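A student in our group prepared the protein record below, which I am reviewing. I have pasted the whole thing underneath without changing anything:
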Amino acid sequence: MTHWLFLMSALLVSSASANIFSSLGDVAGAATKEVAAVIDPVEKTAMTVMFGQCKEVKQMLGLDHKNIQDDRNLTLLTVDFFTKSSRVQLKLTELSSITSSELFKPKEALIVFLHGFTDNPDKMSSKAVVDSLLKKGAGNILALDASAYIDFLYLRASTIIRFIGEAMGKALADMVKVGLDPAAVHLVGHSLGSHIAGFAGKTVLGLTGSRIGRISGLDPAGPCFVEMDKSQRLSKNDADYVDVIHTDSGVFGMEDPLGHADYYPNRGTEQPGCMFQVCSHDRAWLYFSVSVIYPRGFPAIKCRSWKDFQEGNCDSRSISLMGYGSQPGTEGRYYLQTADKYPYMLSLNGVKYVDTEGIVKTFRNAVGLW
């Protein structure tokens, strides 16, 4: 137990340092690639050790669903409603009231951004996605603020997001009862927010008998969810269409496909120009925000694996757009490469593999290390 907590503390310190120096993750060049090639397998191993027994540790610490059910009364959950000229905050329980507001556009989609661990609507992930949607001209844009409950202690946060998702689902179901078309709902979640979206979708289905239209999962959180059944995390059953972007598989994000369509830019692991894993984890919302403005910026090709992508053994007839432009009806795994600097797009050049890996990583792969 002491060993597990020590490793967890070490990771949190590492993660905090990565946030402080995240700008270093955007330093292009060989040095960044070599450092990332060394850091990546170490962090993946640490995450496997630390979070491989989440269920048992949560029960031991009283942080499982059974022991924190009193927190179902989530009175501090709020939602921000954005327009180009205003920002209105209301309690989540009051969400259905916006349908009668003159700011609400009943003929347009309802897009809700759900942030991740230690995040909130005033930080970059929400701002980037919301600003892109506003620039695009989207009408009904919301951002959930769950920071009062998932701003500390990841083990507890990974449990309580189930209740947050259910609360979000109940609020959406109330909107459906006053006329909202569930098919017009698009939930966009980053990290833990992806699983909040999943629970919200499950709840809407249970309360109304209808699925919401779409969920976009942006590098869904991996720690404490990898071994979970689909009823305890995001799954393709939670909406009519679920698309997922994987950018930090095996560390902060999940590697397994979770949606109808799963996109793996740059193998879904270390992203170009990133030295720290938190940088790769955040690239998911960066890619998505860019794709709102440039829906055709990230074409991806359907492949069975990254190895097939490298070798060109993919279905050249199956090209799909990653991010906002992803189309319902798309299914399977899709691969692409991106650039290392904003806005990251390579267009169709991204579906043809180019070896940009560093020396350490190339050697590591060749000899089967890590």
